[in-house]
Amino acid sequence: METRSRPFFGARSDCSLVPRPRNLVAPQKGIRPVTLTNIIASASRYTPLVRNFARRELKARYKRSLLGWTWSMLSPLSTILVYSLVFSVFFRASPPPAGNGSQNFAVFLFTGLVVWLFFAGMINGAMGWLSSVGDLRRKVFFPPETAIFGSAVALAVQSAIEAGVLLLVMALLGNVGLPTLVLPVVLLLAGLFGLGIGFFVCVLNTHYRDVQYLVGIIINAVFFLVPIVYPIDIIPERHWGLPVRKIVEWNPINQFVAAARDSAYLVEWPSATRWLALVGYSTVAFGLGWRFFARRSMQLSEDM
Q1: pLDDT along the chain (304 residues), means of 10
Q2: Is residue 273 part of a domain?
Q3: Does some domain include residue 217?
Q4: Has this prediction a pTM greater than 0.85?
Q5: What is the DSSP string of 231-265?
Q6: Distance CA 57, CA 122 (A)
Q7: What is the Cα–Cα distance from 63 to 68, expressed in whole angstroms?
Q8: Contacts 24+ apart (CB under 8 A), 155-161
Q9: Is 31 in contact with 49 (CB distance < 8 Å)?
Q10: 175: in domain
Q11: Within a 10 A sphere around the Cβ of 168, how many other Cβ atoms?
């Protein structure tokens, strides 16, 4: 028996009930192959739905707030102020000279935070990607990844605003050049890396609610273990017989942060080795995450 659904989140009525796409479901066991074609098709076929999910999240993020979207900048700016005071004044940590020869700890920190907030936002948001649309999905079919892509787009909009403010500050300080233009590419790869991990977290948290608490602990630990709020030079070369600095340097998160600082702070081209690391980390994480999610996505509505 067919029913007529109401328009979804302001979308046109012909887009509210989305047909099941045949080309996105593999013929065996309902597992969608991890191919670029399937990923792009899943996002493009349901573009109106992805757009509506993104719009809904953007509107709800600061709903009934007097300052509204101003909070999206006040929160990171307050973090920059506090950590700049603690590390540059109290601990006297000195950042490397910027591309224009100046030393500005706040700008050095801001460059790393833009990448970190985008990545961490993907992970933290993953816990609520599907629970917020669980009731809707029981009534109307739509691929579960559309809600995820919509949330990712909303987060990308906020990160783009933060990156825009960073580039404006760099321009006012006269610390810009051609390498600065690759910052959006670094952010895109960092987002894909976070999205890939988010696929894992999303599925696991649907089955085990303890995951959200464990992820919160890990996120807080990684923030301080990776040189985001301090320069990597203060980490000893070796400790307990281990090459600590090398281990931290090749941490995936540090590679994204370092690439952003290369382009936007030092105004240098990231090395070929670093680019290979960024592409490798993001591709592997997104590919594995998508496959894990695709294997279990059709069963998620029963657990939401």
Answers
A1: 43 41 40 57 73 78 70 77 81 82 87 92 81 65 76 87 88 90 94 92 84 91 90 84 87 94 93 95 93 75 53
A2: yes
A3: yes
A4: no
A5: -GGGS-S-BTTB-HHHHHHTSHHHHHHHHHIIIII
A6: 13
A7: 7
A8: 155/118, 155/121, 155/122, 155/125, 155/191, 156/118, 156/191, 157/54, 157/58, 158/61, 158/72, 158/121, 159/114, 159/117, 159/118, 159/121, 159/187, 159/191, 161/69, 161/72, 161/73
A9: no
A10: yes
A11: 11
Task: Determine the 3-state secondary structure of 12 from DSSP.
Answer: coil
* H helix or E strand, kind and range, residue 199: helix 183-207
Q: CA dist 158 to 70, 155, 173, 279, Å?
A: 11, 5, 23, 23
Report angle CA 5, 8, 66 to the nearest 5 degrees: 145
The 10 Å Cβ neighbour count of residue 216 is: 13
State the residue range of the domain holding 139: 44-302
Number of domains forming the structure of the chain: 1
Angle at 223 between CA 218 and CA 229, to 5 degrees: 170
Query: Is residue 33 in some structural domain?
Result: no
| Distance in angstroms (rounded) separating the CA atoms of residues 125 and 272 | 32
* Coil vs helix vs strand at 87: helix
